[in-house]
Amino acid sequence: MSQQENMELSKRIFSLDEAYAIRSGCTNMPYVQCSEKTVNDQVFLFEDEAQAKEFCAAWQDKAGPLLPVPLHTRPVPGVQGRAVSEVRRFLASLPTLDVDVVCFRGREMEEGQECYVSDILPAGFTQKLTGGGMYNPLLQLTGIFFCQAARLPREKQDPEELRLAEEEFSANLVKSSLFLAVLPPEGQEAGENLAKIPLAKCRFPFVKNKKGQVLMPVFTDIAELQKYAQGRRMAAMRVAFTRLHNYILKDAESCLINPAGFALALPKKQLEPLATRFGLKMEGPDPAFAPADQAKSESEQN
Question: Which of 186, 199, 198, 272 has the alpha carbon at shortest distance from 233?
């Protein structure tokens, strides 16, 4: 593809009013595939619903359940002439997943064509979005790949691929800072600086699985926390993995990483062995915050 053709394709993708993305049932996230030709990490976008369904049917034997997700352009209620593009919102989320490429297929195309995310989005957008430390793109990407591999039926799993995916995700996880959702005391604003609020007065949300086990939500980035919050008043508390054990509620069996995303349970007893495996030592609590067992909790049935 020439530079001119690539420019035209990127403009076409960015200007789409309607399209269909592909979601993985293994992760509740966009299906991400490593291209065999270019080794780029890519997602798929279709202009035609029938094409999207055809792709899902062709790949679900290897990739697990796949679902076409319609992306529309919707008017802003009460604001004449304003609209929100779900296509652009989808494209804008890709840098937070460390996705390099959109494989796009228009109605007239016999096969998809790759276009770099950096060419589709405005110049400097990715750096502005991810440069503030509120996102962990590589952790999200490796988590997606691990869960896509681990949640296939056993007979369809590739043991070596699964081993490598787990290794890469775990290595990124222990080096990361994660986010905890904190419910401030009644009457306090969620946006207030947590350092000024004694943790003993705050509440930590948790969920229960079908077995009645308590799991404490942990998030790779601020967007995943916001997806979980769904408009409820919650503050964000950033914690290094090596300090995470200080803040897990006593009755919690596990962390639940990204409950609104790939929803990966990590037993509390595995935190220290995982850090040790990669040459790290667990640390005490951040001096700015008291340990989690001094905080109240709020139950949510899952």
Answer: 186
